[in-house]
Amino acid sequence: MHAFPARRVAVAATLVTTAGLGLTACDDASADQSAAVVSTPSSSAAPGTVTLDTPDAKPALHLTDQNGHSYNLVRQTAGHPTLLYFGYTHCPDVCPTTMADIALAARKLPTADRRELRVVFVSTDPARDTPRRLKQWLGAIDPSFTGLTGDFAAVQKAARSLGVGISPPVKHQDGTVTVSHGAEVFAFSPKDDKAHLFYTSGTSQQRYAADLPKIVKGQTP
Predict the structure, then answer these.
(1) Which of 213, 152, 202, 171 is CA-nearest to residue 50?
(2) Maximum C-alpha span of the chain
(3) Which pLDDT tens digit goes with each residue over 55-65?
(4) Which domains does the chain have, with CATH numbers?
(5) The model's pTM
(6) Which of 147, 141, 87, 79 is nearest to 115 (CA)?
């Protein structure tokens, strides 16, 4: 497991069931309200690309996708440029913003390159992120993205293999739920299926758009 304390970006999102807080609802199917706090270990670190000195292997994950099918991450993304992110659908800001920025950037790729790209969203809140929920949520962002859900221990182990810290969702007595997870996006090369870089939280859509053509070709931006 890597230890990258300087790159940890923790996201703690609290889903509040009490109305009247003036917050935006995360789930249209419920009365949940949301508030989020994003903390970074270094306020001087600008969002963008971080190149890894030692490339990270793609984690072995066998989960369920948004269509209810078994999904082997290593096998089903082999030889494809792949972006991997750990998050959850009830997240009020960081997760949907990150996925939307990637979606906008991916749409600028030539059709052939877009077909090669794999974008995989792994849920850190599998109890609530059912396949149906993932399909609805990702469908509003980009239906071609893959959403995975399943055993939390397996997800946590996979995240830790990349140096990403995630914690089990915690439900409090007042009905709030706290989910903490790293906010990095890992880019895996189609040439060796390893991550040579990752993107920090807050990376712009323009940055993804500039880098994706290179990532698709197996180059490191």
Answers:
(1) 202
(2) 52
(3) 999 999 999 99
(4) 46-171+179-216 (3.40.30.10)
(5) 0.82
(6) 79
